[in-house]
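Inputs:
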Amino acid sequence: MTENGRFGIHGGQYIPETLMNAVIELEEAYNRYKDDPEFNRELTDLFNQYAGRPSRLYYAERMSEDLGGAKIYLKREDLNHTGAHKINNVLGQALLAKKMGKTRLIAETGAGQHGVATATAAALFGMKCVVFMGEEDTRRQALNVYKMKLLGAEVIPVTTGTATLKDAVSQAMREWTSRISDTHYCLGSVMGPHPFPTIVRDFQAVISKEIREQILEAEGKLPAAVIACVGGGSNAIGSFYHFIDDSEVKLIGCEAAGRGIDTFETAATINTGRLGIFHGMKSYFCQDAYGQIAPVYSISAGLDYPGIGPEHAYLHDIGRAEYVPVTDEEAVDAFEYVSRTEGIIPAIESAHALAYAMKYAPTLAKDQSIVVTVSGRGDKDCVSVARYRGEEISE
Ligand SMILES: *Cc1c(COP(=O)(O)O)cnc(C)c1O
C-alpha cells in the first residue's frame, strides 16, 4: 500500500465533511491496536475458540484426479462458525469497537450474510446491533431477516434508490455520521473510505497466512495459483495477501459475469466497469453511459456489488492479479460438480472460483498445486440453484 489509504490511484476518502471525524477516530484507534499484542491475542482466541480456526486446507483428490493437471486444494472457510469467511472481519471489527468504547454496531447487508455475521458478533460482545437492508432484499431474504432478529438485532428496511445493497451502504454511512459517539460502522468488505479497505483486509489476511503454512507443510513449495471469488473482494484479498510478494504465485479473482459480460445482466466490475468514485472510494465501478452506478445482476447475491475494493483495482492496474469473468451457468455447473465429486456443497459465490479452477487446473502439470478458497457453504443456495434448473422446492 502507498500513503494515505491509497492503492496506486485508488482508495482514498471521498466522503462528506460530516463523516471525517468518524473515520479519523477509527483510523487512530486501528493504528493503536493493530500491532498491540494483547489485541492480537484476544482476536486469535476468538478466531480459534469461537470461529473454529484455523480452517482446513483440504486436498480435493477426487476432483484433482478427475480433471487432471495440478493438485487442487480447497481452503475451507465454509467450515467457520456462521458458514463463511465473513466472521473473520466482524470479530475483528467488534473487538476494535469494544476497545474504542462503542456499545452499538451498525452494518449494511445485501443478501443478509454480513448482517447475520454482524448480529452474531454483537450478540457475542453484548452490543446493540442495527442492520440496514434494502426493502427489496428483506423480502427476498426473509430467513436471514429472521436470523438477525433472533440474534437480537434490529433490521431497518431501506426504501431509497433501488432499495438494495448499495442503498443500504449509503444509509448506514448517513446513520454513522449522525451517531458516532456510541456507534461503530461494521463495514462488510474491502471497500468504502480509508481505513476500511485496509482494516477488513488485515482481518481477512488470516486466510492466506494459514494457506501459506498449510501448503508448505503439505507440498513443500508454494502453489502455482491462488483462486478466489470477488464481490467487494474481502475473501479474495484475504486469500492473496501473504502471496503478493511471491511473483511465482498467480493470483486470480473470479468475478460474477451473470448472464455474460456482453449483456447488461452482469456484475463483473473489472471486466465491464470504469474508473469512478462511489461509497467514499476511487475504484472501478459498473456504470451506465452517464456515469451513474449501473444495476448489477448475478445468480449469487453475495457477488452483485457494482464495485470492487481499491486494492484489487490496483493489483489489476499493475498486473499482479488477474480478474476473470465466470457466468451463472459455469458457477451452477461447478456447484453441482463439487457437491457430487467431493461431498462439499459450496456457496454459489465460491462456486465461481471453483468453476475457473476446473478450467485452469488441467492446464498445469501434475507436480504443481493450486489453492481455491471456498468462501462459504452452499446450504443457503440450494433453493435458487434448484430454481435455476427449473425445479421449485419449498422449505
Ligand atoms: C459475502 C460473500 C462473498 C463476497 O464478498 P467478498 O467481500 O468479495 O468476499 C463471497 N462468498 C461468500 C460465501 C459470501 O458470503
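The two ends are 46 Å apart (CA to CA). Flag for discussion at group meeting.
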